[in-house]
């Protein structure tokens, strides 16, 4: 997601990490010197041999967060944010057309799973928000609901319910205010914190410290849903854990995934909740079996059958993309190298390929050469001589990735995470980048155009 028309406050009253990332304006890399040539619109990366196309017309444009739906049900258009408002990218021609000009502060939320609606929210003077829907082909916006408090993060498969998170009541507001006594240090682009030696920490470590401080604030929160037709709101779960990263299943309207936010080695992060069964308890998706084991940045597969996530055993040492089959509980893990670890992973519709958006040297993997967009081909480990382990069907299915580099991201400022997402036809990976200064939306072709220079 992205914010237009003015910078939001560091916390926006909610303490939501994903929202903080989404609501901050795109981070700009250092602008090229005046004597340098302008950023290319269509080129072949010499180090990978893959074609890259700039999709957005204006700088400070952005695509959605990696697990938010940006595509129409017909897979012909994609919604993005521009300085003028909301625009659509035709996925056959890559032509950008305006959807809606918005002069006030707003946030693009997602596109619908069944309609051609684009959902967004505007910020009201009194502190509330209003959720709107507008056809991606253009038209008059329709008001969905007014939200006095909280933030919308997801929509269910049949577009009957919006899902969001809110800080609860006076106690929650007081706890959040006490946490926010330290100016704007939780702004995603400007985390600040001191180490035990009194020296400033780098961006990644400062982020960990600030996340831990927020977790320990024990702010009362609740998850809620809003009926799209009536605007009626109801609470589905409440906790003093830090609730965040809500995702409805793309195929099951009653299944909601959420996380306990905070330092990943400290929280049981990933949970499922059936909101169509009153009184249903949340179900934990992953249980830690090793000290400093972490799991997160989870997402649903396109068919809604599997939850995939980043798994490290332990943190910063051994790296996997892990899968959890919702119906059977069966688990899969694909191993990858340190430099291949990525801030976000993704998977194409038929499950034949995964992607990774790489990471900077001060991030969790401390990669020596990790600033790349990656294409991963998964391979299951098969038993030698065809002799499996006893009860192998009940054990974790291991596998490995074969990695191919797609785009050299050496100049990317990773405070703007690329958030790669496969195009519906499976031929491109769409991402956001600031490699040439201003942030833009790009697409890299998965088929190689020429042999790489190295």
Protein architecture, described:
With 454 residues, the protein is mainly beta. The protein folds into 2 domains: 253 residues, Methylamine Dehydrogenase, Chain H; 178 residues, Methylamine Dehydrogenase, Chain H (7 Propeller), CATH 2.130.10.10. An 8-stranded mixed sheet has the order 19-20-21-22-26-25-24-23, with no helix packed on it. The protein is globular. The relative contact order is 0.14. About 6% of the residues have low confidence.
| CATH arch. level architecture of the largest domain | 7 Propeller
Strand order of the largest sheet: 19-20-21-22-26-25-24-23
Q: What is the H level of CATH, i.e. the homologous superfamily of the largest domain?
A: YVTN repeat-like/Quinoprotein amine dehydrogenase
The largest β sheet comes out as: 8 strands, mixed
Unreliable residue stretches: 5-24, 181-187
Number of domains: 2
The quaternary organization reads as single chain
Helix run count:
3
Q: Summarize model confidence as the mean pLDDT.
A: 88
Categorize the overall geometry. Answer: globular
State the helicity in percent bands.
under 10%
At the first level of CATH, the class of the largest domain is Mainly Beta
What fold name stands as the CATH topology of the largest domain?
A: Methylamine Dehydrogenase, Chain H
Instruction: Give me the Rg, rounded.
Output: 21 Å
**In terms of structural class, how would the helical and strand content be classed?**
mainly beta
Strand segment tally: 29
Quote the distance from N terminus to C terminus. 35 Å
Strand content: 35-45%
